[in-house]
Amino acid sequence: xxxxxxxxxxxxxxxxxxxxxxxxxxxxxxxxxxxxxxxxxxxxxxxxxxxxxxxxxxxxxxxxxxxxxxxxxxxxxxxxxxxxxxxxxxxxxxxxxxxxxxxxxxxxxxxxxxxxxxxxxxxxxxxxxxxxxxxxxxxxxxxxxxxxxxxxxxxxxxxxxxxxxxxxxxxxxxxxxxxxxxxxxxxxxxxxxx
Length: 194
Fold this sequence. Notes:
By secondary structure, this protein is α+β, with helices and mostly antiparallel strands. The chain has a single domain, classed as tt1808, chain A (Alpha-Beta Complex). The chain has five helices and 14 strands. The strands form four sheets. The protein has a six-stranded mixed β-sheet with strand order 3-6-9-10-11-12, sandwiched between helices. Strands 5-4-8-7 form a four-stranded mixed β-sheet, with no helix packed on it.
C-alpha cells in the first residue's frame, strides 16, 4: 500500500497507518507521520535487549507486562474512534499494568512506563516531541537512554500531572523504577562493553 512520503497528506490517522507497507516502520504524532528508519544500531539493540531482560525477569510473576518495538501504542483523544486516532507510536520498551489497555493490535491508552533509546535520527523527536506527548497522555515514567554517552534521563509524573526535572544516571549507577516498589535496574549491565 502507499506510504506517507508518496501521498504528501496532512492529518494521518490510525486508519491510514493500517494500510501502509508493513516492511516500513512509521509513527504518527498528532497526525504527522515520522519514518522510523534507519534500522537501530548494534549498540541500540544490545541496550534494548538488556533493559528488556531486566524488566522481563522482574515482571515474570506479576500482572504488568513489558513489550518492545515493534509494538503499537495508540493514544486516542477522549471520543476518538479507533480509525480516527491520530497518534500511534512504537516506543523501544513499554510497561503496561492495566490489562484492559492491551489488545491484539498493541496498547490503547498510556502505558505506565516508556523507554526510548535515542539515535542521531530520533533525538529531537524523543527529547522534545515525545516528552510532551507522553506527559500529556499520562505516562507515569519516561526514560530517555543515550547509548553513546551511557546516560539515562528519567522523567516521573508528579502530583500535578506534569513531569518534573529529570533524574540523570550514568553507566555506573542503578535506577530505582518509580512505578514499582522493588525494581532496580543495573546500568552497569545495560551499558556493558562487549
